[in-house]
Amino acid sequence: MNIEIITSRNSKLKETGFGSLHACDDVLGSIEGMGHSVLVTICETLEDLENVVRRAPDMVVLAAKYMPVEGRDDMWFSDYFEQNHITFSGSNRETLRYDSDKVSAKERLTNLGIKTAKYFTAIPDQYQSEEELPILFPLFLKPLDAANGNGVDDSSFVESFSEFREKVLSLYEIYKQPVLVEEYLSGREFTVAVIKNGSGKITISAIEIAPPESSGGLKILGAAAKMSDTETLKKIEPHDIASVNALAVASFQGLGARGFGRIDVKMDGLGVCYFMEANLVPGMNHGTSYFPRACEIENKISYDDVIKLILDESFKRVGVEREYNKKLR
Q1: Residues 223, 152: contact at Cβ < 8 Å?
Q2: 192: which of 56, 77, 226, 246 is 20 to 30 A away, CA to CA?
Q3: What is the rounded CA–CA span in Å between residue 214 and residue 113?
Q4: Which CATH code for domain 98-115+186-307?
């Protein structure tokens, strides 16, 4: 099978994706090991995408969600390849919006009865006093659509209105969008790799993430901890695993995710699990990214087997979609 791994140069460095070009090379090596012909393509222009279509690969593996295009809206790879009748890995554009917009994901799952932290959004000077805030302190503030811990640090945890106003202004100036404000959940933090193969079988790999303690005594999983790999990843205690897994799978299915995705879960002080966010194009760096590490820690699945598992559903669709497209012609 001829396969292309599609990525882009996202200078904002805030969106989810496989990671660096090194991560794409890791994935390439695994796919080559399966016996397929594969290459990595960096798309920066519409001509780059048109060239992919001319080469007519059997399928494309989307290592990023979109390609920034100067002077116009971002070009979403899932939309483009669907319109050009090329099978692509992972979820479609409609579902990927839940990855980019944390509020949309929360609204969707709340409507389905799935627990998520209470929240609201804010822009500078929208609220003039503590009494106007929809949720009581302490609160936790982060960008609406950033990934990889960007915008998250000790100042994200706020206990006063002055701290709240300062953090809202800071995030708004950087990201130019409303800030997501959540009730602070004081319990443990988990991430869950969910893979649904072409036969519908679901593999669940959940692990606990223990951030390092900062100089201020807080344990916050922000960009600094993720970049320096100072957080600890460990197996979940047997008495907690069922509730974490159940919430993650319900969230994955509730969002309509296809193939694979990573669901972040957090507990409150009483041990109740809440959905935090979905990462539907998760990092794939060999040895460091949470998704393959979770599979290794919880289920002893090697990196190469992780790649094989996440692409199984896509491989099954290749033949089906090819026959469907022939009928359309």
Answers
A1: yes
A2: 77
A3: 35
A4: 3.30.470.20
